[in-house]
Amino acid sequence: MSHIFGPVPSRRLGYSLGIDAVPFKVCTLNCVYCQVGRTSTKTLERKQWISPEPVLSELREALKK
Question: What's the pTM value of the predicted model, to 2 decimals?
Answer without folding.
Answer: 0.64
